[in-house]
Amino acid sequence: MNIAILSGKGGTGKTTVSTNLSLVTGSNYIDCDVEEPNGFIFLKPSQIASREVKMDYPLVDTNLCALCGACAKVCQFNALVRTKKKITLFEKLCHGCRACGLMCNHGALTFGKRVVGRIEEGTLWDIVCKRGILNVGELMAVPVIKELLTNLPEGVNLLDCSPGTSCNVVCSLQYADSAVLVTEPSLFGLHDLKMAVQLVRCFNLPLSVIINKYNREDDRIERYCQQENIRVLGVIPYDREVVRVYSSGKMVVQLPEYRERFEKIAKNLREVFPWN
Amino acid sequence: MKVAISSTGRDLNSMLDTRFGRCNYFIIYDVEKGFVKAMENRGQISGGGAGIAAAQQIMDEDIDMVITGSMGPNAFNLLRNSDIKVYQCKNIQVEKAIQMLKDGGLEELTQVGPAHAGIGMGSGKGFRGGR
Fold first, then answer.
1. Residue B67: inside a domain, yes or no?
2. A178 vs A70: CA distance, rounded Å
């Protein structure tokens, strides 16, 4: 069972919710925000094993190349260009789809592999903690996310997704069985929550909401959820103490009051998405 | 000698578009024979690598010179390696830009502009992911 934690708006508390829920429920934690994974800062897993993520890219044999330009023409990502002298590759734009290889009638294209990121896997007690890391300067996160989410451990996995509703989130949702949307009571929070709800509904996944930075005076999220018939699993108050603990890299559930809160959220979560 | 000018419209009265990769059209002009045609820039609709797509089009048309406002590193290097000269111009009428080129009033572009400069015009089209 894979539960995607997403938000739409950035900074609403996806990582706070995912790491603390993972601890309270004993679920595995999977950091899919490969452009800037930060969950390990809080969970501090040990015995970390690392492996590289590689992508295909075309190599042109200039002796065989007839400079016909068929490879450049078929490339949907403008990664290949035919100049008068040679075929030029912009490797960071290459999606590794190999269409260029199919189009080449001269046998001039072969494929090499290049490293674009890595996967790290460690443990915290019996919790498996995994994350993908995209190398600095690389443009495409999806290959790293796909590699990260293939062969996930048994049991319940919490997928801590990227913000927004981009390809990165879409890719993560392809591996999810259900979704929890973390939001905050602000105009921006609600606006992006609506987009995230739309996206999750495209996948026909069951979804529910957690409201972070909750304050009693602003009920725009609750009103929206009621309208849309979306269950609110719980709220995390807008509290200086939470920020203090979080900003020193500690778990919010270290505070007894918040352990109780997260346990309640976990109980509600089990009601919505039952697991053993 | 064929010149390509990045343009907002299809004719010589149009204003020059200072963006290379994301301009709407290229006006192709033959220095001896005059106006040749306007072609849509395939770069403007591409998700990424707009400058590269535009440069490919320029190379396929056997252009000798380009007039534009600025150019990112990828397109700039492609054109330079193909011996296509790039001249810099402000957003004036395409016709006037051509006249300035003929009069020797345009400077060759020697400095690469920032990457992705032609995108969004400040609307912040998400560059986090998005493709």
1. yes
2. 43
B13 to chain A nearest CA, in Å? 31
Chain B residues within an 8 Å CB radius of A69: 60
Residue B130 lies in a domain: no
Q: Tell me the DSSP string of A183-238.
A: E-SSHHHHHHHHHHHHHHHHTT--EEEEEEEE-TT--HHHHHHHHHT-EEEEEEE-
Question: Is residue A56 within 8 Å of residue A113, measured between CB atoms?
Answer: yes
**CB–CB of B59 and A139 under 8 A?**
no
pLDDT digits (tens, 9 = 90+) for A201-241: 999 999 999 999 999 999 999 999 999 999 999 999 999 99
Q: How close B96 gets to chain A, by Cα (Å)?
A: 30
B11 CB-near residues (< 8 Å, 6+ apart): B27, B35, B38, B94
How does pLDDT run across B115-129, given as a tens digit for each residue? 777 765 443 334 444
Residue B26: domain span: 2-113
Task: Please name the fold of domain A55-115.
Answer: Alpha-Beta Plaits (3.30.70)
Report yes or no: A103 and A133 within 8 Å, Cβ to Cβ: no
Instruction: Identify the CATH assignment for A2-53+117-272 out of 3.40.50.300, 2.40.440.10, 3.40.50.720, 3.50.50.60.
Output: 3.40.50.300
Q: Is there a domain that residue B121 lies in?
A: no
DSSP state of B91: S
